[in-house]
Amino acid sequence: MKFIARILSDDPVEKLRRFIICFFLEDDTMSIKSLDEDFRNKNSMEHGNLTRMKAVKPHSTYWNSGRNFYHFTDMFVGNVIYIRGKGYELLEADEYTIDYMERHSEMFPHSNVRKIMTEFKEWIPDKVGSLKFGFEKYDPEKTGYIKEVIYEEMPSDIKTEFPEHAMKTVGRYYAEEKYIGLCLTDLVSRIQSELYRKKFHDFDNVKLAFQIYDSEK
């Protein structure tokens, strides 16, 4: 299972850093690797990296640590895990991980659309009015459909009750068009943003490299 994460910090530099957190189901171990090249070869404890091992939850003691290691049920988009005093917010999972969790939804409650919708139906009667008002602004033409809504912009009642991963599960299940990966314009935009953040300017060599690998033009 693979997630992109960020450290919860007030430091403006730390906020921009991104990490890959891998969780291994066979033994409940995890690893953390920085996506920032400048930090990869530096002290792992200082800069947030973690070699593959079992990670103990906060407030565990010698006597209860065996029952307080992070488990696969702790790994879902929107959750925060704490490693060596640092909080890592899980921002996104790759498509393989999302698909695996949905195919084994009996193991992952936030990927189980039936369970989520059952809870939603029990919870929603008292919230219909506020939710209707909250979503109408995303459907001004009253088509009955809305574009994907960023979780942070969802009504606060939903965010309090359901984690981001659960809402992604529902959105994927009921989507009019199935997700097939990043479209070209989104991919280009993300690459440009990352290159800009890295202050990269050697575009001539990048173009040459693509031409070499695209021999058939």
UniProtKB/TrEMBL annotation:
<dbReference type="GO" id="GO:0043014">
    <property type="term" value="F:alpha-tubulin binding"/>
</dbReference>
<dbReference type="GO" id="GO:0000281">
    <property type="term" value="P:mitotic cytokinesis"/>
</dbReference>
<keyword id="KW-0677">Repeat</keyword>
<dbReference type="GO" id="GO:0072686">
    <property type="term" value="C:mitotic spindle"/>
</dbReference>
<keyword id="KW-0963">Cytoplasm</keyword>
<dbReference type="Pfam" id="PF06565">
    <property type="entry name" value="DM10_dom"/>
</dbReference>
<feature type="domain" description="DM10">
    <location>
        <begin position="1"/>
        <end position="105"/>
    </location>
</feature>
<protein>
    <submittedName>
        <fullName>EF-hand domain-containing family member C2</fullName>
    </submittedName>
</protein>
<dbReference type="GO" id="GO:0060285">
    <property type="term" value="P:cilium-dependent cell motility"/>
</dbReference>
<dbReference type="GO" id="GO:0007052">
    <property type="term" value="P:mitotic spindle organization"/>
</dbReference>
<keyword id="KW-0206">Cytoskeleton</keyword>
<dbReference type="InterPro" id="IPR040193">
    <property type="entry name" value="EFHC1/EFHC2/EFHB"/>
</dbReference>
<dbReference type="GO" id="GO:0005930">
    <property type="term" value="C:axoneme"/>
</dbReference>
<dbReference type="InterPro" id="IPR006602">
    <property type="entry name" value="DM10_dom"/>
</dbReference>
<keyword id="KW-0966">Cell projection</keyword>
